[in-house]
Structure prediction request, 249 residues.
Amino acid sequence: MSIKRRSLLISNPGVEGSEDYAVGTLADVQNLKKLLLSPMGGFWKEDEIIIRNKPSKLELLGLIGTLKNVDYALVLFSGHGAYSATLNDTILELNEREEINSKELRQGALKQSLILDCCRVITQEVILAKILEASKRLTQSFNPADCRLYYDKRIEECPKSLTVLYSCDIDETSGDTSKGGVFTYNLIESSREWISQKNTDTSKAFAILSIVSAFENTERIVKEISGNRQNPRMEKPREGPYFPFCIIA
Prediction:
């Protein structure tokens, strides 16, 4: 079994020094990269992860096109955005001059997850009021090779499909902090919490947290933090199995 993966992590914090500069978008990219490279994140390889800050639309479309050559793709956009009622879709600000319809980010791998941590309307940001404490327990028990093996095996078991995670609902803002976007930061930290609560004997078994379950864990946290002002939404296949997000093996 040889699964070809690629992760595309895109950020746009805005103009440095401006009132709406979102430094957390840069943290989101680094936090997710760190997770992916770890055994619990599927033990991705450095050359499978592409990072771009404020890419041009032409460059980004080219990168999306390369995803058609892999078995599974994980795409993150963390930055500024808005919702267009006319286009009935979320519009992403790539840089100071260009934007892109988020539908164009769906044209990649046959098996793909898309995380959009951006506002879906331009209004006042919600400030993070609670941060989960990251847990390092079980780190020593990971078998990196097995993590990658079973992560790939689950991808192979999944149908050709697309899962999309939105950090907020239509007509809502997506909160930002210096530690990362409220949604992406808690998506990663709640997954670490899941790891810390599992009691898996990795010599005999493995456990997988799907991207759907990871979203469901995060949705509750983000709603609580924002006082129900930021309500994450998800598009997923009606039936599983669903793509892996974290693994213990």
